[in-house]
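Team,

Forwarding the record for the chain on the shared tracking sheet. I've put the sequence and predicted structure together so nobody has to dig through attachments.
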Amino acid sequence: MFNKLKISKRHLAKSLTWRFIGSIDTLIFAWLVTGSIKEGLNVSLITTFTKLIWYYIHEQVWFKSSIADSNKRHIIKTFSWRFFGTIDTVVFGWLITGNPLIGLKIGLFETVSKMLLYFGHEKLWYKINYGLDKRNRSKRLKRHREERNKVNK
């Protein structure tokens, strides 16, 4: 699977913008739960890197998905990403603090906020054509062929 992943400027840009938003969210909740800015920063920093990788892979998989582009797609994608993101946060929250309950608390608190933030992020990126030049070109060609075929019938 990894050898088939191509670098996509769109997926990279989406990964970076989401990770910025997500890292701030993790920092806030980790700080609030632990009471320590240092532990909050540690959880936020380590999960920034791990989730960049997971998110990029998630984007590649979803880009190949056959689910129609709609709210249904965004909702399913939101839940699938949150599943992996929460596990990542819980594990690293636990490893950094040494307390599995703290990792679980951080993961649970950010689950709701991140689902809302992620859904908004997806909706915004759905409206942005950045990195979709080939896809848009092929859609235009397909529409042109379909219109030409209708005229020829």
